Amino acid sequence: MPQVFETQPERTDLPLVVMPAVLGSMIRPLRERFAGLHDVARVRMFEDFTEDEDVIARRTAGADVMINGGPHISDALLRRLAGSVRCIVFSGTGVASYINLSLARELGVRVCNAVHYGDNAVAEHTFALLFELTRHVGALDADVKSGRWASPYADGLQLAGRRLGIIGLGGIGGAVARIARALDMDVSAWWTGHTPVDRFTRNGVTPVDDLGELIASSDVVSIHLPLIDGVTRGIITAEHLARLRPGTLFVNTARAEVIEPGALAARLAQGDIPAALDVYDSEPLPDDDPIRRVPGIILTPHVAWRTDGAFADLTRQMVDATRAFLTGGEMNVVVSEHDAAAHDGREA
């Protein structure tokens, strides 16, 4: 049985906040942050991780707020939770990959996320992947430890002087740009017409308004778009990827779903694009996924955001968003509990 962390269990007059599953790395910072809900809510955190929907529903029974520590919430589970849960606080930014936001809106459930907590973490991991592609540190380490000094991975690529094309110049993309500039790279980014121009100027980035041209003219392509249904889902197409020049380094630490389904696997199967990925269409990555068979590809298990600094800020935002909901405020609201009422003519 998992250990259960509770605060003020005797205060049955207070709303109940339940976290039915949690990553181990979040437990300590959350325990410290939950003091911010004193006299606002009772907290119950199950200190293990599960995606079993029956277990999640049973643990969350009677809760006013669910803090979602990572499990995907199916439509069926969301409908079950909506019987008591009035707010779901998600432990991340890309909540659309985990919860049907349209259904939450229909059910009148507030959904909150966390923002910018992982900007530096993801940017640093982007370069960890790039350095692995260019300098093969993992393979060199394995060769030396096995007694092989003259390694076939000895010769690397230099990033200085190469052109980086960033797709998505938000908080993470901006951090990537600043690191790249420090490495003496030439940095460009896609300008959709919506990104503030001063963001390009501030980060020393050249705007390019044609995505295909950005991809075709870059030595390195790095994706940092958020997943927004109807806006960025599938926005990078097979035609765009066809414009990758042989030898272009390709990194995705954003969301796999911003690429047209099947397009990346098809392009990488040609074997001329060194690639590194932290995100996938299906997670965990299935054993038979063709991405696994791409020669030389570097794969990490959706961990770019996981650093001590990111966990500290993430857990702060999760607790603050919970407190805001329970005290009549708003913080990081993605779906408002009033949206459904407004849409069907009822008074919110």
CATH fourth-tier homologous superfamily of the largest domain: NAD(P)-binding Rossmann-like Domain
**Largest sheet data:** 7 strands, mixed
CATH topology description of the largest domain: Rossmann fold
- Beta-strand fraction estimate: 15-25%
How many structural units, i.e. domains?
2
Give an overview in words.
- The protein is of the alpha/beta class and 348 residues long.
- The chain folds into 2 domains: 4-117 and 308-343, NAD(P)-binding Rossmann-like Domain (Rossmann fold, 3-Layer(aba) Sandwich), CATH 3.40.50.720; 119-299, Rossmann fold (3-Layer(aba) Sandwich), CATH 3.40.50.
- The chain has 13 helices and 14 strands.
- It has helices at 24-33, 53-60, 75-81, 101-107, 119-135, 137-145, 171-182, 197-202, 211-216, 238-241, 263-268, 308-326, 339-343, and strands spanning 4-7, 16-19, 42-46, 65-68, 87-90, 110-112, 163-167, 186-190, 206-208, 220-223, 249-252, 275-277, 298-299, 333-335.
- The strands form 2 sheets. A 7-stranded mixed β-sheet has the order 1-3-2-4-5-6-14.
- Strand 2 (16-19), helix 1 (24-33) and strand 3 (42-46) form a beta-alpha-beta unit.
- Helix 1 (24-33) crosses helix 12 and helix 5 packs across helix 7.
- The longest helix is centred in the C-terminal third of the chain and has 19 residues, at 308-326.
- Mean pLDDT is 95; it is low at 341-348.
